[in-house]
Amino acid sequence: MSKIIVRPAALVKQGQLTLYSTSLKVSDLLIPNFYSVETLDPDNESDKGYQRLLNRARAKRLADYIEDGQETKDAFLPTSIFMATDKHIDFNPANNTIEIDISSVGPFSIVDGQHRVEGLRMASEKDSRVLDFEVPVNIAINLPQIAQMCHFLIVNTTQKSVEKGVEQRIYARLTEALEIEDIPSLPKWISKTILKGEDEQALKYVDFLNSEMESPWKNKINMANQENKDGTVNQQSFVKSIKKYVLVANNPISIHTPDRQHKIFLNYWKAITNILGTEEPTVLFKYNGVELFCKFSVPFFNKMINMPDFRVSTMENLLSQMFEEMEGDYAGVGHTEFWVKGGKASFLNSGALNAINTEMVRALHKTNFQKEIEI
User: Fold this and answer.
1) d(CA 66, CA 79)
2) What is the pLDDT of residues 104-113, one digit of tens each?
3) Residue 168, Cβ neighbours under 10 Å: how many?
């Protein structure tokens, strides 16, 4: 059985974007199949969602406010909900109305406002009077999902913040879509990031490290929109370090194909953990470990240019010699005890990490590793 809603609306044209500004009752929003929230799923490679995870505490705060305001009739929610559909909705200029046939148009995507909708739903379950509460809504029509994702990114980076890991995922997907799908106009800083493609490249490194069975990073990275009790570092931090230190012109592994880069980088971390261990509790898999060894990867891989291979054993031997050459306050960086939780590595600041990297580079230059390799 189809459900048809007729509402007064204003037609708004913004470039190629067509919007209808109107209002809907909460009872309209809660009609089955009226809306959906395209949540980002980092574990699903074919997933096309883009929304952050729902914060139920945030939605409940709104629900409590709306519910409390029913008795005094002073609850208000002036901020509009932004919905979109890839289908067409007819506008009647004679009486300024739109007619929504949910069976043919729904479900609408909630581009912005999922916490408001959820809060209203929660409030209506406790007080049926909320069902008659009206909320302002902007409805975009004929908008493909890739464009909906772009508009979500624009709204949440130009007006309010979005979780950085979700932002990185969206940038990566837009980079992949550049030569395949039509993308609407984007702010210059977003376009520049997408064209550069660093988020996409860095995320592929992180996804590879986090998913490979033999990786010391297996399931240790908290991906965007993912609840992971075993995670020790956020995706956004790891991606940032890879963009800053690994995806740079002077890192020689950049000459290899992406698949080979990922395998070389994985072998690098295998070699590190073979020496420093993976036993808990260690802070090697936290920000300080990521930052230090991503930064050190540039001089390390430059040293390996003339090495016979990129095997784990080859890297492990070079790292071991480098650690043996370390002197001074940070000579213990090549020992497990240095990285145990509560040990010296737990309290390093950026200045200390830079100093350690400098000493590691100095020690690396002292090695004469090439003579000791059997070719």
Assistant:
1) 14
2) 887 888 888 8
3) 24
Reported in sequence order, the residue ranges of the chain that DSSP labels E, i.e. its strands, are: 4-8, 10-14, 17-25, 35-36, 81-84, 91-92, 97-101, 108-112, 134-141, 221-222, 233-234
Q: What is the CA radius of gyration of the chain?
A: 26
Angstrom distance (rounded) from CA 41 to CA 47: 6
Question: What pLDDT does residue 288 have?
Answer: 94
Query: What's the CA gap between 84 and 140, in Å, rounded?
Result: 5
Read off the pLDDT of each residue in 170-177 and give the average, rounded to a whole number: 65
Q: Which residue has the higher pLDDT, 164 or 61?
A: 61
User: Phi and psi of 245, rounded to 5°?
Assistant: -120, -30
Segments making up each domain of the chain, as ranges: 4-162, 206-372
Per-residue pLDDT, 363: 95
More confident residue, 227 or 96: 96
Best CA proximity match to 268, nearest among 248, 232, 242, 233: 242
Three-state secondary-structure class, residue 3: coil
